Amino acid sequence: MKFNSRKKQEQTHFMLAAVIHGVLIGAAGVLLFFFILQTVEKRSAQPDEQTLSSSTSQSTKETSKPVKFYAIQYGVYTSSQAASDFLAGHPEYENVAIVPVGKQFYLWSAVGNNEKKIKSTVSKDAFVKPFTLSGAACEEKGLKNIPQLLEVGKVAKLNFSDSTKGKATPADWKGKVTAMTKVSNNLEVVKLQLLAHYVSQNDCLEIKF
């Protein structure tokens, strides 16, 4: 009788120990699983964060930096009407455009990045005026890229398919380039006409002297 009672106690202890052992192994397995899962997620997230940071930094560097230009200037007026009246009385200034900057209106005949080249075409009635153009305040990517789009060194590269290489352009860029190049094949004149068009239509494009 005692023998059977002892045997039952041993069996009970054995089963209890097995259950406790199984619970401990199960808990350890669950903890190990979550540890491995968190490690994998952390490692997979890091490259994405680095890529995003790099991409954001590169985008800012490409589109927010002001670009320096040189303009051939004939005069400046306090109203658009006064500037228009002057041009109406001087038909010889057929390529001169009115460029609004703040509350003033400038008469420019050419815009380029090469100061030496601009100076070589200045007449006695004009002078070279340096300025910077920034699209950093523009929300639309195409407008933000205007300063860089106007940096090209050849008329052909103003064409969006050649010059942008993946860079966003304004919706009407191709049409405007086509229209301006029909008027003149002079790069500095075409750049001026494009600049005058987009600056007059978009306050976010900023010209500073």
In short:
It contains eight helices and five strands; from the N terminus they run αβαββαβαααααβ. The protein has 209 residues and is of the alpha+beta class. It has a five-stranded antiparallel sheet with strand order 2-3-1-4-5.
Tell me the strand order in the biggest sheet.
2-3-1-4-5
* Residues in helix, %: 40-55%
Total number of helices: 8
Query: What profile does the largest beta sheet have?
Result: 5 strands, antiparallel
Structural category: alpha+beta
How far the N terminus sits from the C terminus, by CA atoms, comes to: 110 Å
Kindly state the mean pLDDT as a whole number? 81
Percent range for β-strand residues: 15-25%
The count of DSSP E runs of length 2 or more, i.e. the number of strands, is: 5
**What is the N-to-C order of secondary-structure elements (H for helix, E for strand)?**
HEHEEHEHHHHHE
What value does the Rg take, in angstroms?
Answer: 35 Å
Unreliable stretches, pLDDT < 50, 5 or more residues?
47-63
Outline, from the CA principal axes? rod-shaped
Describe the structure.
The chain is an alpha+beta fold. Helices cover 55% and strands 17% of the residues. The chain has 8 helices and 5 strands; from the N terminus they run αβαββαβαααααβ. The chain has helices at residues 2-63, 80-88, 115-119, 141-144, 146-149, 160-163, 173-183, 187-201; strands at residues 67-77, 97-101, 104-112, 127-134, 206-208. The chain has a 5-stranded antiparallel β-sheet with strand order 2-3-1-4-5. β2 (97-101) and β3 form a beta hairpin. The longest helix is centred in the first third of the chain and has 62 residues, at 2-63. It is rod-shaped. The termini are far apart.
